[in-house]
Specification:
The chain is an alpha/beta fold and about 120 residues long. It has a single domain, classed as Zn peptidases (Aminopeptidase, 3-Layer(aba) Sandwich), CATH 3.40.630.10. Helix content is about 40%, strand content about 15%. The chain is built from four helices and four strands. α1 runs antiparallel to α4. The two termini are about 15 Å apart. The model has no long low-confidence stretch (mean pLDDT about 85).
Length: about 120
């Protein structure tokens, strides 16, 4: 499960409600997130970070990726925050193609490196 939105150049994994609890498969989730962030960053040099919501942003009540991982038992659940140049949550039309190229590189990496 992947959710994408415009925000802060992050690949986010479970959990968001606390940094005190790690997902049971945190090492695998984190490794895939870090590789995905590196693949996206390599497209045009924009730095993407990988980590849990509480590590990268703040403690939140938990989002769709937390639900997909913990409740729906999806083996992989991430939120990918698209590149943001400080203009809020809307991708300017002249940046849509670049955002798509970034995400394509990230998705290709994810799909090639997910374990069965």
């Amino acid at each position: 499960m992947r959710a994408c939105h415009q925000s802060a150049n992050n690949v986010i994994l479970a959990y968001g409600h606390t940094c005190d609890i790690k997902a049971p498969t945190d090492a695998d989730l984190r490794s895939l997130a870090e590789g995905t962030a590196d693949a996206i960053s390599a497209v045009k040099g924009t730095e993407f970070k990988a980590g849990s919501t509480c590590e990268l942003i703040k403690n939140l009540s938990g989002g769709s990726s937390d639900f997909a991982y913990h409740v729906a038992k999806a083996p992989y659940a991430y939120t990918i925050e698209l590149e943001n140049d400080g203009k809020g949550f809307v991708v300017p039309p002249d940046q849509i193609l670049a955002s798509c190229k970034n995400m394509l590189a990230g998705f290709r990496y994810m799909l090639a490196n997910m374990k069965d």
